[in-house]
Structures are given as C-alpha cells and as structure tokens.
Amino acid sequence: MIPYLSFLLLSLVLLDREMVLSQECTKINVNTCKDCITSGAFCAWCKQKNFTNKGEQDSARCDTKEELEKRGCTNTNIINPSSILTPIVDTPLRSGKQPIQLAPQQINLELRPGKPTTFPVRFKRAEGYPVDLYYLMDLSYSMNDDLKKVKDLGTDILKALKEITPYARIGFGSFVDKTVLPYTDTHPDKLKKPCPDAEQYCQAAFGYQHVLSLTDDGSRFKQEVLAQFISGNLDSPEGGLDAMMQAAVCGDKIGWGNNTRLLVYTSDDGFHFAGDGKLGSILTPNNGKCHLEGNRYTKSNELDYPSVGELARKLDENNIQPIFAVTTNMQSVYKELSDMIPKSTVGELSTDSSNIVTLIKDAYSNLSSTVIIEHNRLPDGVSILYKSNCADETRKNEPRGSCSNVKINNEISFDVTVTAERCMKPQSFEIRPLGFTEKLTVKITTPCQCECDDQRDAADCTSKGHIECGICSCDSGHVGQNCECRVGDKTEKELNQGCRRDHGTSICSNLGDCVCGVCQCHASETPGKQIYGTFCECDNMNCELNNGKLCGGHGKCDCGKCLCEENYQGSACQCLKSDEVCKNANGTVCSGRGHCECNVCKCKPGYQPPFCGECPACPSPCPKYAACIECLGFQRGPYSKKCSKACSHITHTNVDKVVNRKVCKEKDSENCWMIFIMEELDGENQYKAIISNERECPEPNIAAIVENTVRGVVVFGMTLLLIWKLVTFLNDFKEYRKFQKEKQKADNPLFKEATTTIMNPNFSGD
C-alpha cells in the first residue's frame, strides 16, 4: 500500500512543466475529436452543439482552449486531456540493512502526445549501504609478489569494507589468458612444468576461474587466496576482459546480491578485445553468456574476446562498478578503457599490491559520491531529459542526471521530463542510479480517445443520425454535415465524383464538403478570406502582391487573378494606364521604336530602355546611306535623278565643317571621301544628316603615273617577246619532225650489207 501522505506529496510536487513551445494548435486534416487531440499538445476540441456556422468545416471545433472559449464554447464542452501522474509504489527513503535510496519506485504516466510532463525523482545516499566486492586478480608469473601480498592482506580488505558498511561481502577470481598459441606456450614440457624456476611450483595457464563466491567470512577469503598458486605463463596476461565478462554475467555463481557491486580488477599488463582472437584461430564472437562449469570458463578457447562496448553493456545491466587497480605503466591504457565504461575508476597499484586496501577505499568513496541516474531503452516515440538539482549546482536538459560529491544522508533530486510524440500502446521503461540495484519503473499510456457523453436527441442530424463529440454520425444511407443527403441508389463514391475537379483525387479541392454531389465550401479561418467556386477552387486572397498589398491595393482578387481598377493595369495592378512615363524629350512614346507596357518601354530588338533611344549593337547606317548622302549633299551619284524618292526618310543640312566624334567617312562615285553625321530621329529608319561641303579628294601623283606607265610597257613588251619565242619554237619543232619522215623515205632498197665467210679445211662435218 502506498502511504497517503506520500501519494499526496508526490502529486503536489508534480511539476508538469512544459518545455518552451509555441502554444499553438496546428490543424492538418482534422475532422474528428481524436484527430484534434493527437495533432498537437495544445489542441482542444469543442463538442458543443451548433458550434460551427453553416458551411464551416468541423475542423473549426479544433483550436487552443483559449480560442475556443473566445468563440463561445463553454468550459464543460471543451475536451482537452492533460498528462496525469499516478504513484504506484513510493516507499520513503531510509538507511539500515535494507535501505531505500531511490523514490518513488513505480509510477504510471498518462502522457498527452506532444506535451512534455515533468516529475521529481529523489535520491539519498544511505549510511551502511551493503557492498559486494569481487576481487579479480591476474595470476600470470609477473604478479607473483602481488599474490603473496594479497594473501597477507586478505582479511584487511574485508576489514576496510566493514569500516565503510557493516554489510560487506568479498569474493575472489583469477585469470591469465587463452591457452592457445600465441597467448600461451603450449609445448608439452612447458605445460608439465610451467614455472621458470625449477624449485618453484606453478599451475598451468588458464582462461578464468572463479575461486570464491561472495562471503562475509574474511578467514575463508584468506584461506582460499592462500591456496592459490601463480601461473607459469610468462607471456603478457591479456585475458582480463574475458574474465570480467564472466564475472558480470554469472551472477548466480558469483553470488551478487541486491547491493553495491564492486569488481576490483588487478593487473600489470594490458588486455585483448574483440577481433584479437583471430591470432589464435578463434573466430566465433563472444556471446555474452555464462560458461562456468566447475568454476572454470570452458569456452575460453572457443569464443573471441568481448568488445569494450559489449562488456560495458553487461556491467551496466548488472549494476557492477569496475575498479581498475593497475601499475603505473598501464595507467593511461586503463584510463581510456574507464572512459568507455560508466561508473568505473582507475587506481595506481604498487608493484607488490601493498596499497590495495587504501586504493579500494578511495575508489569506492569516489564512485559512491558520484550519483548518475539514467534510463534503459526507451519505447519508440518517447524522449526524456533530466534536470539535476545538486547541492552545489543545477544542470538542465541533459540526457542523464548527474551529481558529484554527494554526502551520506544528503538528499538530492532530479526533475525528469518525459514526452510521448504520438499515440502508442502501453509501454514501460526503467530509471535507475548507476551502480545500484534500485530502480524506478515508469509505465506509460497515451490518452488518445475522446470520452464524450453527448445526450442523444431524436431531432439531431435531421433524425438520420446521432451526435458524437459535437458532430453527426449518420445512419446508413445518409451523408452530409447534418445527414441531410439521402444517398439512395447511388454510392457515396458516385456522389463524390461530381465534386472532383477534372476527375482529380481531391474532393472539393480539400476546401469543402461534398453534399449530395455538390460542393459546400468551408468558411475560411483567415479573416476576410472567402472560398468559392464549383469545386471550391477559388478564393479572394491568392493573388500577386505589390508593395506588400494584394493586387497592389488597386484591384480585387478573383480566383487567382487581379481585377484592376479603371486606371490601373498589370498582373498585380501595379501600373497606371498612361504613356506619359514612356515619352522621351520630344514627347514620342518609346521613341517610336517600342511600346509602353506597365509604365516601362518594351523596345524592339537591339534598342535600350528607358526610351529605346539607342541601339549600340546595330550596324552603322553610314555605309548603307552613302549614295543618299552623295545625291543630297552634292547632287551626283547613282541616286542623282531620283534622290527625293529614294532618300525621302533622310533630312539633311550642309555645313562648312563637321565637328563630332561620331563622324562618318564614306567614298563617293568620284573616289572622294564624304564627311557627314547621321542622327537617328524618332520612329523607324528616320535620320537627319549633317553633310560637310568639303570632300577629301586625292591629288594626282605624276611620278607614280610615269613609273606605272613604264612598268606597264616593259611588262607588255616582255609578254610579246615570250609569245613570239613560243610560236617560233613550235614552228621549228614541226619542221624537224617533217624532215625526219622525208629522210626515212629516201633510203636505196637494192643496197645490201657486205658479208664475210670463213671455212676450216680440216673440218669434215663428221
């Protein structure tokens, strides 16, 4: 039973404070009470009859409580669930053999989705809180002196714990490493006699062995330690994480009680972790289960070492606080390990472990004076934050609560803020102080149903339905906001089809209700906004703005288009209907080379605003109209007989001298340079020409004329000579060929060449 005063106290201190959130109700696709209260932490639902106006959608019933009250909804008709805390177990804090350090122990929370709820958790360090200490020792050969000292100090360790608390127990275990290469020398002779000193007895290497379960009998602890012998293994003893894992998960065999659990780990060397087992062909991952048979770890040579994360999780699950008592050379290594294991500490062990008693007392004092509370795995959609109200400071919005230097019998508190983001089935999680077995169980439910007690009236919903939370639930065959539409032979799908624009998917553009196949548009929540149209597709607010005003303040918005006043134009009615702004100095609109649109000249290609006066990229008119300049200014040239007709678009003035940077120089028909200026007038292809009376004609060069004449005669003479020579050569060649043919015809046919015959008189022919 929960004491009534305790229940009342916890209810009074329930803070129910909310995180800094904008108290607004965001309504998206809200049609029912349930949709409303689950859409936002500050949304409330009005179930009052006839609360909405004609054409107003049911979502108007969903708003903040304050807004609903302003609109006339009475407080009794407003559904606005709140978060409720109910203490289930709240045993007062106390010291003694069965101390209570954490309160409350169990609560139920009804959480409104999206609304943070805060409740207090109290903690007080109890005097004489029971302590279980498990001494895990490295028994490799390098720890020989340490084992001797621990044998001498066995009862002193328990006596030191008894000074802290009268309820103390102590146990003992030892480790070396996996008994496979390369961790242990597996030579048969070495296994028979592992000790390097021939006269000394040493036990063979082993992985981990549990020697003594937790006991309050100091003499038994000393007796068991005295029976231990050092291992002859000279290799680095690095199987410590294996041993710690087994000590953590084999709780029944170790004998862990509902107490503060300390695991003192002593070594003078490092440690192996997950993946290192591959060196010994051990590939199976560590499974984090207990494998003690006959107090020996039987899976040492079959399972890999545990990872640091796996070990930290198992230590945390079993509320075990490690104390790493290591030599100076290993301090930095184990401090890094301690940083990854919550509620752990590192102490410097002397070379022979003579300071182990002092080290344990100091380490326990440091661990117990630091109080950390945290939660286990949260349900999906639940978040939690802590505010730590410590004696020396206050820390807000942290992922876990933490206070340091907490003295015995001093009470501290933590404000825990829990938020459920959505509706969910009943869930639970635990909050507990690290290193202690006590816990607070928090059971969560989310009230996502509206409990409406509407009184039924036969006249409601045109007698074709009944009221549920203020809105009509129609009988079969009837639809509509007041069940006024009888479906008849048509299905609701067929009726809704007449409310879909262009056979789309949305009914009445999602801005109205389809009643008997006709859209009834909703009344907008935005002041002044009207929704209309066959499919509720139009409104009077969705138009262009100019200077922050709808339709520039000079027109009306009609279904996305601005209907401008008489003197205004433009898509946002931003322009006056006037050409005055577009006129140049001559009073011509856009210089005759464009049109005025919304008080801005829209020029023809090439011409530039503001008045389309210049065309920097256009070709110069000077070469094009050189013939006109010649006929207008000098009455000669190709247009001399039709000058007035061919050059009517050019007015001209003759002057003695032209002075301007944009002077044109073009040659006339007499090869003289004409000098003039072309000014473009308003309109297209209209120019004014200012022509200089003087032309620049070249003077004749006598020397050049004579030189060119002589050159011409010489070239002509040489050409005639070459032609005569060629004709003579061809004629001679022709005569020579003719001579050759006649010579062949003049030979004597009776002429024969003389022959000589020589005969040998001695040759008979045989």
Number of strands: 42
Helix content: 10-25%
Rg for CA atoms: 55 Å
Q: Can you summarize the main beta sheet?
A: 6 strands, mixed
**Ends: how far apart?**
165 Å
The count of helical stretches stands at 15
Overall pLDDT confidence: 84
Query: In terms of per-residue confidence, which ranges show pLDDT below 50 for 5 or more consecutive residues?
Result: 1-22
Shape: flat
The proportion of strand residues reads 15-25%
Neighbour order of strands in the largest sheet? 4-6-22-21-16-19
Provide the structure class: alpha+beta
Keywords: Calcium, Cell adhesion, Cell membrane, Disulfide bond, EGF-like domain, Glycoprotein, Integrin, Magnesium, Membrane, Metal-binding, Repeat, Signal, Transmembrane, Transmembrane helix
Domain Integrin beta subunit tail: 622-701
Signal peptide: 1-22
Protein name: Integrin beta
What does it look like?
The protein is 22% helix and 25% strand. The chain is α+β, with helices and mostly antiparallel strands and 766 residues long. The protein has a six-stranded mixed beta sheet with strand order 4-6-22-21-16-19. α4 packs antiparallel against α6, α4 packs across α11 (356-369) and α7 packs parallel to α9 (308-317).
Summarize the structure.
The protein has 766 residues and is α+β, with helices and mostly antiparallel strands.
